[in-house]
Amino acid sequence: SLHIYSTTQSAKKQNLLTFTAPGNRPILSIKYCNKRVFSALDDGKVVILRRLEDGTWKVKEPKICQLADNKPVTSLFPFENKIWCACGNRVHIIDAETEEIQTSFEVSSDVSAEHIVVSGVGVWVSLQNKSTIRLYHTETLEHLQDINVASPIHRMLDELDPKVQEMLTDKPVHVTVLEASKGALWVGTNLGVIVSLPLPRLGGVPLITGRGMVAYHTHNGPVRFITVIKTKTHTIKSKSKERRPSEASSASGSEPPTPPIGKKRSMAAELRDAVAKEKRSSNVSSGSDESDMVKTLYSHLTMDRSCTPEMMRQYSEDSAAEVFAPPSPSPAAPGYPNLSRTDDTKGDSSKQAGGASAQTKKEEEERTATVKNITMMVVSGGEGHSYLYDVDTAMQQKKNKESMVMVWQCKM
Q: Is 133 exposed, middle or buried (0-12, 13-18, 19+ CB in 10 A)?
């Protein structure tokens, strides 16, 4: 069944409508495009629910597109007012306006297509229980390239301890998730290993010419999902009181308060605190934790966090009542162009005022922080978490089967 809820805060728990798929078939995937909801069924059908002008959904007479007989529709991907559907050994394209099948093409003679993702003018398709992904042109539907993601994984395993290799070589590699972002194609596997393949940053045909990067941080089971979260460029302006010399000297040796787990903090605030902490430590060496944290905060394929569903629920409760404070004044971090900071001090006006009002205006500063969108967050979900590079840690963590997400912070 398909359940529809309101997005407003006061009524988000209220079930507005329930739709049962024809024949009570299970729904495998749901996508939204052009004021329509497309639902993939396990019998080769795609059910289309259209939203009317008054905001209601037309559920009594849904449009049904039959792609194949008794073959599951394993993936849906919306792109340019079209829905790309993987069903059997073919990929079908449905026009989201006319709700009709526009065309289809074959990806294999004997293996079913499983996952689809579009990047530029290319569409990547993974094959069921295979480690190969295939690239097709979105306009000509021409087959352009094949990539075997098992190759970079095996190269990574060759560098690890034999005990770790035994944990991951007991079964063949196949693709479970595909996701594309600016400059990278993310591939999740049944081993829990995530591979990042370089894509052209200027669009066009996304041919892969470089070597893939494999993360040492893995899940203990198949990767269930990968999603990319992009931050928007925004400017924060706030007035904050300047510290007096006596206050600054008394607090010079104190550490900045660290919020508890679950408190929401901005990416810029974490970077400023990390740099400030490194500057305060005069004996920080190049291999220390503080120095490495600053250097790898925006490095590629460096895992930023992992958390359990319980931590996510706590985060949701805390962030609902969180009051976002203005960013604390701190110098810009050299070498990190994603954070540029300018301080507009109203010194001239304070000199003209004089007296007590002049002193008050001098203490009041308008600070502006501009955070530019050159980083992204990548979130993966699966069972547990292991760090393969440390054999003792990997052997201990491999037993954890609790559902977890890993959060990565990467340069775009």
A: buried
- Long-range contacts of residues 37-43, Cβ cutoff 8 Å, at least 24 apart: 37/2, 38/76, 38/78, 38/83, 38/94, 38/96, 39/2, 40/72, 40/73, 40/74, 40/75, 40/76, 40/85, 41/72, 41/73, 42/72, 42/73, 43/69, 43/70, 43/71, 43/72
Tell me how far apart the alpha carbons of residues 189 and 178 are, in angstroms, rounded to a whole number: 9
CA pair distance 133, 111, nearest whole angstrom: 12
CA 208 to each of CA 22, 114, 138, 195, 205: distance values in angstroms, whole numbers, following the listed order: 41, 20, 16, 13, 9
- pLDDT (tens digit per residue) in 128-170: 999 999 999 999 999 999 999 999 999 998 888 888 888 888 8
**Mapping DSSP to helix (H, G, I), strand (E, B) and coil, where does residue 359 land?**
helix
By percentage, how much of the chain surpasses pLDDT 70?
Answer: 64
Strand partners, 93: 84, 103
Residue 357: phi and psi, rounded to 5, are: -65, -35
List C-alpha distances in Å: 206 to 113, 162, 172, 198, 209.
19, 36, 27, 9, 9
Per-residue pLDDT, 298: 32
The DSSP output letter for 313 is H
- pLDDT tens digit sequence for 180-196: 988 889 999 999 999 99
Cα Rg, the chain, nearest whole Å: 26
Measuring CA to CA, which residue among 104, 101, 130, 133 is closest to residue 116? Answer: 133
Quick one: which of 28, 33, 32 has its CA closest to 45?
28
Q: Report which residue type is found at 65.
A: C
Closest among 156, 150, 152, 78 to 117, alpha carbons compared: 78
Task: Give residue 32's identity as a one-letter amino acid code.
Answer: Y
